[in-house]
Amino acid sequence: MKLKLYTLLLTLSILNCTAQDTTLYVGTYTGGDSEGIYKLTFNTETGALTNKELVAKAENPSYLSYSPDKKHIYAVVEHEKGMVSSFKITDNKHLTLLSKVSTHGAHPCHVAINKSGNKAIVSNYTGGNASIHTIANDGTLTEAFQVLEHNVDSIVSHVHSAEFYKNQLYVSDLGKNAVYNYQLENDKFKLIDSSIVDLANHAGPRHFALTNNGKFIYIINEYSSSITVGQKTEKGFTKIDEDSTLEADYNGKNSCADIHLSKDERFLYASNRGENTIAVFKRETNSGTINKIQTISVHGNWPRNFTLDPTGQFLLVANRWSHNISVFSVNASTGLLKFMHDTKISEPVCLLF
């Protein structure tokens, strides 16, 4: 009887430990020691990162995105001859290459999938355009059915990110200093607005976060180290707030990188490359305005992408030049961060739970 009880308790303990573990995929640059896409085990109770393993050899997979059902992963190939790849996730969480197609532009740096999982858009930084692809039922990518060209005048385009929202498509162009809005019409995306909200001169919009209801947009500006807040109107967005991501006494060079809302949308997080910090903002959920409440060191150099874990209790930062991933705990009540520990990995630039 005691043996059966012990066996039952041991089984429950193992199941509980398994339930606390989730997989983190890491996109990297492969000019040094890295060979492609890695996976680590993340414990959502302790914040521990373990079991680093190469799961797909790939060239500069600097941005990764899931399919909605999390059965496939899409990765850019950041190179002069831009490509985007699709992978099937196997039973042991490794990745099997399914397809690789041209992005029709150099140095793709971002890929996003629509909610239905049947379209992908890839942002080409040097190419100054974005390619849109159909995704088949098996996860394979077709050749681009549309390319959004932004290099149409003397101002050099640098498309940096894009997101689908219902039948809308928003595209952030750092070079043009604008966020574009396209709308799906007759299976193609039609340009509705080439600048949805006023931005300061040479702000450099890089990434953005939309609220779930689409009412507010938060744009992180690489050059001006600021966040522009827009509120949805009938004719696009109107600017309602703008805040610096830097401490008032910081005088060095800085380039903002990534931005994310907490799951409950009460807090906003932004990464600073140069100051090497995460800026934390409290968000007024009704008005949409933000107020900075914390600046915390990333315990590394040149933070690129960062992410919140599935529980919302941890925030992880990919520090490219210090070759580490830093783990922070998140206070659910205040949104404030506390550094816990870090894990070494060569040139991490994208984190995907």
From TrEMBL:
Record key words, sorted: Carbohydrate metabolism, Glucose metabolism, Signal
Signal peptide: 1-19
Pfam families membership: Lactonase (PF10282)
TM helices/strands, residue ranges: none
Keyword Signal: yes
Family: Belongs to the cycloisomerase 2 family.
Name of the protein in question: Lactonase family protein
Organism: Flaviramulus aquimarinus
